[in-house]
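Me: Here is a favour to ask of a fellow structure person. Could you put it straight underneath, so I can go through it closely?

Assistant:
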Amino acid sequence: MVKIIAHRGSSGRFPENTMTAFLEAKNAGADGIEMDVRFTKDQELVVIHDETVDRTTDGKGKVSEYNLTELKKLNAGARYPNYDKHETILTLKEYLDWASQTNLILNIELKYSEDTYTNYEADVLALLNNYDLGERLIISSFNPTGLQKIAKLAAHIKLGLLYSKKIKKPDLYIKKLGIGAIHPSKKITNQKLIKRAKNNEIPIRVYTINTEKEINKYLKMDCTAIITDFPDRALVLRKKQLF
């Protein structure tokens, strides 16, 4: 059965990467949650997608130029249309304290920038070591070098390579890097790629699948998972296909 992973939580209906979006995804019955991690000026790990706070909060500037105390004062729900609830930017620890008590698949995407500090991956792993997440944990990134580093530091953790441009032989490419799964964009994913991944026993999780037409298409293709802003919509459509 194709898994339904909520992209930044139920981000199609609530402010992305907020506790409300995560709770709504869980309550809808999503199989998992995908979310993003960056770091602050004081090297605290926080849950936010963009390199800057401009698009999703009432602040301006790079996440890495704020310390955690300053970042916590921003409203992560400020830019969402017709939304008047104040949403605090979460730390990775706050997210994990909640998520570790669920049965959800936890797809943590590591975000990188020019000022990424040396111990970033090690700090993420050190925090993750405090939780018994087992097979539920997936770390993904567009940065293959970062994933390689994690593979060397923690070979037991499942890794997924995000990419939006075609790779000729993705199964061979990720094998060289020590990465176990691919997370391709829908724009470059077809039945041939899904079949190749399945034949090579490589999980393939496709992003970002939102419309009813797209969801039905990729459910029928039988990929490992779809990553969607609308997990509630995807769950209804999956149920219809199953029954």
Notes: The mean pLDDT is 97. The beta strands are 3-7, 32-39, 45-47, 105-110, 137-141, 158-163, 181-184, 205-206, 225-228.
